[in-house]
Amino acid sequence: MWYDTRGQGDPLVALHPGGAGVDSRALAPTVAALARHFRVYTPEQRGHGHTPDVAGPITFELMAQDTITFIETVIGGPVHLLGCSDGAILALTVALRRPDLVRRLVFAAGVFHRDGWQDGVLDGDPPDFLRPGYGEVSPDGIGHYDVIVAKLDTMHAHEPALTHDDLGKVACRTLVMVADDDEVRLEHAVDLYRSLPDAELSVVPGTSHGLLVEKPELCNMVITEFFTKDPVPTFAPIRRAASR
Q1: Per-residue pLDDT tens for 139-155?
Q2: Where are the beta strands (DSSP E) in the chain?
Q3: 49, 16, 51: which is closest to 135 by C-alpha?
Q4: Which domain holds residue 161?
């Protein structure tokens, strides 16, 4: 698993969006901001970026195990975890499977069940610009691009399929982020927020599924504050009243 590191401080792992031709470069504005406060690790998943594909399918569970092994082997202890889109799904799966390894979690523009995507989002071919981006760095060569697309299509046809019972077992404090015009249904993001035991919700106005790069200053401020500060006392809590 290829990875890069930037910054100094407590470890933070940033998990890139999914899709053939998508890799850690998609998180550049976020990583640059977080590296002022943390040692940021940007591993690239199997068949993405600089990491080669392996025989067999690509699934969120397999990538979660890859990421768990990465955290245990390279970092050796619990981390802050951020994921966007498919990376958010992956981060949530890691937090569910190994709660001892995740301190805080930012879940940006992802779904916990595939039904959370807007109608038509998973249909059709990937955008044309992703193919040359894949070819620029993939050790498998641009000729392998269609193989990765087919594997990811199969994955997205069935996953993720986490349940509300699963969400109730996520132990870490979690920030759910979504755009107000996202590929994720807003109702689904609110459902996720309400189903997690210790969650906060941020709806980023005037953005789409690319919220982290469309309004980087706003998103980076919200994310950095979540990772670096404790929750503030609130005057009129409703959902969190029982925890006071």
Answers
A1: 999 999 999 999 999 99
A2: 5-6, 11-15, 39-41, 79-84, 102-108, 173-179, 199-204
A3: 49
A4: 5-243
